[in-house]
Amino acid sequence: MNIEILQIPKIEDYRGNIAVIENDIIPFLIKRVYYLFDVPSSARRGGHAHKEQFELLIPLSGSFDVVVNDGKNQKIISLNKPDKGLLIKSNIWRELENFSSGAVCLVLSSGEYLEEDYIRNFDDFLAYVNHK
């Protein structure tokens, strides 16, 4: 599957840790940054795939699950450490669920918002990846 857990380097200090993301950590230039917060535990976010963009999802606070699907296989990845991020490459359907109270999901994206890059219907996604 076109996903990978990335270990984000951290500097440990008795005053608190620092995680550092620089150009050698992720395989793309960051073009967009956004974050999800105040998500009710019963809500689902995502529900789409990207044709070209890559995204790195980082749980800055709390925890959540990411359900990923490549059209053949499905996995559930639990994210709960701010020094581990989920790299989702192109053509992977994703849904985020089971948000803990106070969860914050930071997303670093390889592209600016472009509606044409989104596949927002799962049946359309299956047709797209099975046709490639």
How does this structure look, described?
By secondary structure, the chain is mainly beta. The protein is built from 1 helix and 12 strands, in the order E-E-E-E-E-E-E-E-E-E-E-E-H. The protein has a 5-stranded antiparallel beta sheet, with no helix packed on it. The chain has a 5-stranded antiparallel beta sheet with strand order 8-7-10-5-12. The protein has a two-stranded antiparallel sheet with strand order 2-3. A hairpin with a 6-residue loop joins strand 2 and strand 3.
Features:
Jelly Rolls, 12 strands, globular
Distance between the termini: 15 Å
- Please state roughly what percent of the residues sit in beta strands, choosing from under 5%, 5-15%, 15-25%, 25-35%, 35-45% or over 45%: 35-45%
Q: Count the beta strands.
A: 12
Uncertain runs:
none
Output the radius of gyration: 15 Å
Strand order of the biggest β-sheet: 1-9-6-11-4
| Highest CATH level, the class | Mainly Beta
Number of helical elements: 1
Q: Averaged pLDDT, please?
A: 96
The ordered string of helix (H) and strand (E) elements is EEEEEEEEEEEEH
Query: What composes the largest sheet?
Result: 5 strands, antiparallel
Shape: globular
Q: Which fold name is given in CATH as the topology?
A: Jelly Rolls
Output the CATH homologous superfamily.
Jelly Rolls
Structural class from helices and strands? Answer: mainly beta
Number of domains: 1
Q: Residue share in helices? A: under 10%
Second-tier CATH architecture: Sandwich
